[in-house]
């Protein structure tokens, strides 16, 4: 909107009088004046009180329902109305939810979907491309409401939501991405969205958006990707490096989204190899928060049963040992967990020993952090049970913290042979589960 025009309005504006004048103009036969007044209302909508806007909404919807007419300017009242409704739907005045509810209850959603589905009729005049954008923005503004999402799904409106996410302002596209994430929980809808090309749309937003948009798009793409059938298009859209960038952002939610998506994609071994390469590069950097997050993901990935060792193939092991030797705080704690998990694999265990991890782990048995000591002891127990490495363990065997964890671990193994670590194990079944069938 033209903020200069809206800024002329003050607290003393008689909005009731303005609404009455607008109603009089709409009741007149002067369509040119109706168009001008409706566009003006859209431009100043951020300054108009919500009670005035909610009373104007039914008038605008009725204008949208009018039979198509064109005036000398080639601009229709329907286009002016769609523009005004799109502005009101995105305005920041008063109670936005109340305004959106008023638009929904006016019956505009089926009307907008009908117009979009019958676009070949060029319903809104010669400037149809612009009018279509207004209609898509109306849909975008309303799509966060549950009842509207239901209508979108049941009325064949998903293509328009995806189309809306491709164009328009970043704010509008982020709203569409949020709605897509809310809609994409079931396998049936995921498949439709993927077939409509939503994956590259969300990946683009993840790459070009501001922080908020990256988080929204990243979360939506993770929801769509959370099925084994849809991993490939996500990777082909270039998502892995984009999520690696998200993992390095300062916002905790950004890191969580990236971690979750990596754990989903890593079900496929080729993806796990690619992801681990990005994780190693992060671990070699100087951002401690990002390094801790990367170690967390590598901790998860090291529990997958792939044909190759992800840690060894990515060159992670010497990097992890170096961090354990030289770092402090949360990073070292996370890395100790990764090393404890890797120590269950015979070849990884040998690689860790060759990189000098055993004396470092022995030193950590004296650390003040209980989890760090437990992780170090857990790894050392696995080293002590390896005939090829047992002779390097004499220094640790008499340390009380090592003996305590050893006793506890033996008890756990005796109770359940499968509970060898507290690592979160991921399985393909988690990604083929369909809530529609439960």
From TrEMBL:
<dbReference type="InterPro" id="IPR016024">
    <property type="entry name" value="ARM-type_fold"/>
</dbReference>
<dbReference type="InterPro" id="IPR011989">
    <property type="entry name" value="ARM-like"/>
</dbReference>
<dbReference type="InterPro" id="IPR000225">
    <property type="entry name" value="Armadillo"/>
</dbReference>
<feature type="repeat" description="ARM">
    <location>
        <begin position="356"/>
        <end position="384"/>
    </location>
</feature>
<protein>
    <recommendedName>
        <fullName>Armadillo repeat-containing domain-containing protein</fullName>
    </recommendedName>
</protein>
<feature type="repeat" description="ARM">
    <location>
        <begin position="315"/>
        <end position="357"/>
    </location>
</feature>
């Amino acid at each position: 909107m033209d903020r200069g025009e809206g800024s002329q309005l003050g607290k003393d504006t008689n909005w009731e009088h303005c609404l009455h004048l607008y109603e009089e103009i709409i009741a007149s036969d002067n369509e040119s004046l109706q168009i001008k007044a409706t566009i003006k209302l859209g431009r100043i909508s951020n300054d108009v009180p919500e009670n005035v806007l909610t009373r104007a909404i039914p008038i605008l919807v009725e204008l949208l329902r009018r039979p198509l007419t064109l005036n000398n300017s080639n601009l229709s009242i329907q286009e002016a109305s769609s523009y005004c409704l799109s502005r009101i739907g995105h305005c920041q005045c008063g109670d936005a939810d109340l305004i959106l509810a008023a638009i929904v209850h006016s019956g505009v959603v089926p009307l907008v979907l009908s117009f979009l589905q019958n676009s070949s009729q060029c319903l809104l005049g010669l400037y149809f491309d612009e009018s279509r954008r207004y209609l898509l923005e109306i849909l975008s503004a309303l799509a966060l409401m549950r009842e509207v999402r239901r209508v979108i799904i049941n009325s064949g409106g998903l293509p328009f939501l995806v189309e809306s996410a491709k164009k328009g302002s970043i704010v509008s596209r982020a709203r569409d991405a949020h709605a897509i994430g809310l809609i994409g929980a079931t396998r049936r809808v995921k498949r439709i969205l993927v077939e409509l090309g939503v994956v590259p749309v969300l990946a683009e937003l993840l790459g070009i958006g501001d922080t908020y948009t990256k988080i929204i798009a990243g979360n939506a793409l993770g929801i769509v990707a959370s099925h084994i059938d849809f991993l490939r298009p996500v990777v082909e859209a270039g998502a892995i490096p984009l999520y690696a960038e998200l993992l390095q952002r300062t916002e905790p939610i950004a890191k969580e989204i990236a971690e979750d998506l990596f754990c989903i994609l890593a079900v496929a071994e080729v993806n796990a190899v690619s992801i681990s390469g990005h994780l190693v590069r992060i671990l070699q950097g100087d951002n401690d928060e990002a390094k801790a997050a990367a170690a967390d993901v590598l901790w998860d990935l090291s529990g997958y049963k792939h044909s190759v060792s992800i840690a060894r193939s990515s060159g992670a092991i010497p990097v992890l040992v170096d961090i354990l030797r030289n770092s402090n705080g949360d990073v070292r704690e996370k890395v100790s967990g990764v090393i404890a998990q890797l120590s269950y694999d015979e070849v990884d265990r040998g690689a860790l020993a060759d990189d000098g991890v055993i004396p470092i782990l022995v030193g950590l048995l004296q650390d003040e952090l209980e989890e760090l000591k437990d992780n170090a002891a857990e790894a050392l127990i696995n080293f002590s049970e390896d005939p090829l490495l047992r002779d390097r363990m004499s220094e640790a065997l008499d340390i009380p913290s090592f003996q305590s964890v050893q006793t506890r671990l033996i008890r756990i193994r005796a109770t359940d042979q499968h509970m060898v670590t507290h690592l979160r194990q991921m399985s393909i079944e988690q990604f083929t589960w369909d809530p529609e069938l439960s």
